[in-house]
Write a structure and sequence with these properties.
- This is Sugar ABC transporter ATP-binding protein.
- Belongs to the ABC transporter superfamily.
- GO terms for molecular function: ATP binding; ATP hydrolysis activity.
- The chain is an alpha/beta fold.
- It folds into 3 domains: 242 residues, Rossmann fold; 166 residues, Rossmann fold (3-Layer(aba) Sandwich); 67 residues, no CATH class.
- It contains 18 helices and 19 strands.
- The strands form 4 sheets. A 6-stranded mixed sheet has the order 6-7-8-3-9-10, with helices on both faces.
- Bound molecules: adenosine-5'-triphosphate (ATP) and magnesium ion.
- Adenosine-5'-triphosphate (ATP) binds next to helix 1 and helix 15.
Length: 499
């Protein structure tokens, strides 16, 4: 039975419409996927439903009756719970405060906050996710992004007598989670569904949608294209509805790695956070780095960036006996880096697309900013934006106005400013839509054919196997193994994380 019906949802920003007469219908007790390319309007729709973005037009019916949607209180009254795309936790508060904050704090005799109950409630919510490694007393800022996401998910699971939850809205909850954490989330989602609640689920990962959702609605350019039962549709159909073109949901063919010259040799390398690194890389090779969450994958990249200092071991790299001593030196040595946390270390959100895309290239575009012509910067940025199919209205637009996936593309554009010798990619396709993923894969393959070496991490195991020549498996911050990807399966790779 239809529980929620949204119609005529329109939201304009200046001349551009983020949503253009979009609609959505959710049944009671179903897991409903909302899919669409980066910038299609998914997060905007969710913000309208949450009452945090005021639409130009919208009508909401619950159980057949029209209900108002004027602000966040209306959404809360209907029992809607939200996990927004960008982390909106309060970093200086404890885990418990962040989890319980969405509801009122439990009080003793109606006066002081009952801290014991706050921690008990938070602990119980984390337990539902089968998470026992997060101390509810810790400051949330100290947690990894994955753990912060678990805290956000837990916050929606806190029970409330005043407004029992009827709809859980999750905007890309899995983008920051590992495979195992995703499995736990899907188990929880199944439980929510059994209890009669509905879930609206946004993800760019086709497998997750095909395996865990009942129906899917597809948006393109702010409009509803179609809603179908997962059992009656296919990946190809969904991709075509999203993009309006047929795209392969696969990896570009390898051009074959010719015998190339050696690019770097690493022997017994130890830094503060990783140990036992031992491998060599040829020019044009793509090396994956994998492992359970927080096993030192990112730190391997950081060693090449110059902010993880070698403590012992030997490295021969770019015909030198040293690694870069600092990130600024790395940039001069043509080492490009796409960070994992685009909002924390990747982007200046209030600055324009051009500023974000060109800042590190000023040396290349002109000797100093004042001498570099804005025109040159714009041409340069426009060309790269086209290569990654960036969706924007003008190059001077501040980055906070871009959709999540398009922000990631801006970060990627910066790394492609000049052809790198070494490309360091930390979860490069997180939050990026299928079409753009394929474009990014093609770009990386192209750079590889031209001689750039790549080291990339990813929690998407098929992606690592599809893109890399070899995979370095990390365990407890140590190199555990290095394997060829030929014939490797995701299941076998996952097994190596544990054995
Ligand atoms: N404050 C704003 N000002 C101007 N444009 C905006 C603003 N917020 C969103 N937009 C635009 O609205 C469109 C839809 O964005 P939205 O965030 O809803 O996309 P999305 O489908 O969630 O994409 P993604 O998969 O990348 O998260 C985008 O083109 C975006 O640039
Ligand atoms: Mg979004």
């Amino acid at each position: 039975m239809t529980f929620l019906k949204l119609d005529h949802v329109t939201k304009r920003y200046g001349a551009a419409a983020a949503l253009d007469n979009a609609s959505l219908e959710i049944e009671a007790g179903e897991v409903h996927a909302l899919m669409g390319e980066n910038g299609a309007g998914k997060s905007t729709l969710i913000k309208v439903l949450a009452g945090v973005v005021r639409p130009d037009d919208c009508s909401l019916h619950i159980d057949g009756s029209k209900v108002p949607l004027e602000g966040p209180d209306d959404a809360a009254r209907q029992g809607f719970r939200f996990i927004h795309q960008e982390l909106n936790i309060v970093p200086h508060l404890s885990v418990a405060e962040n989890i319980v904050m969405a509801q009122a704090y439990p009080r003793r005799f109606g006066l002081a906050v009952d801290w014991r109950r706050v921690h008990d409630k938070a602990g119980a919510a984390l337990e539902r996710l089968d998470v026992d490694h997060i101390d509810t007393r810790r400051k949330t800022a100290r947690l990894s992004t994955g753990d912060q996401m678990l805290v956000k998910i837990a916050a929606t699971l806190v029970s409330s007598d005043a407004h029992p939850a009827r709809l859980y809205v999750m905007d890309e909850p899995t983008a920051a989670l590992t495979g195992q954490e995703c499995d736990k989330l899907f188990a929880v989602i199944e439980g929510l569904k059994q209890s009669g609640a509905s879930v609206l689920f946004v993800s760019h990962r086709m497998n997750e949608v095909m395996q865990n959702c009942d129906r899917v609605t597809i948006y393109r350019d702010g409009r509803t294209i179609e809603t179908s039962r997962i059992a009656e549709t296919s990946r190809e159909r969904i991709i075509e509805a999203m993009t309006g073109r047929a795209i392969r949901d696969t990896y570009p063919a390898r051009t074959g790695t010719p015998a190339r010259e050696m690019f770097c040799t690493v022997e017994k390398l130890r830094t503060k956070h990783v140990d036992g690194l031992e491998f060599s890389l040829k020019r044009g090779e793509i090396l994956g780095v994998a492992g359970l969450a927080e096993s030192g994958q990112s730190e391997v990249l950081h060693a090449f960036l110059g902010d993880e200092k070698p403590l012992s071991g030997a490295v021969t790299f770019q015909d030198k006996q040293t690694l870069p001593s600092a990130p600024s030196v790395a940039w001069k040595r043509r080492i490009a880096y796409v960070p994992r946390e685009r909002r924390r270390e990747g982007l200046m959100l209030r600055r324009s697309i051009v500023d974000n895309a060109v800042l590190p290239h000023l040396g290349q575009l002109g000797s100093a900013r004042i001498f570099s012509s804005r025109r040159k910067e714009r041409i340069h940025t426009g060309a790269i934006a086209e290569r990654v199919r960036l969706k924007y209205s003008r190059l001077g637009q501040p980055c906070y106005q871009l959709s999540g996936g398009n922000q990631q593309k801006v970060v990627f554009s910066r790394a492609l400013g000049k052809t790198p010798e070494l490309l360091l990619l930390d979860e490069p396709t997180r939050g990026v839509d299928v079409g753009a993923k394929f474009d990014i894969y093609t770009l990386v393959r192209g750079l590889s054919a031209a001689g750039s070496t790549t080291i990339m991490t990813s929690s998407d195991l098929p992606e690592l196997i599809g893109m890399c020549d070899r995979i370095l498996v990390m365990r407890d911050h140590r190199q555990h193994a290095i394997v060829e990807t030929d014939g490797l399966t995701p299941a076998r790779l996952l097994q190596m994380f544990y054995e």
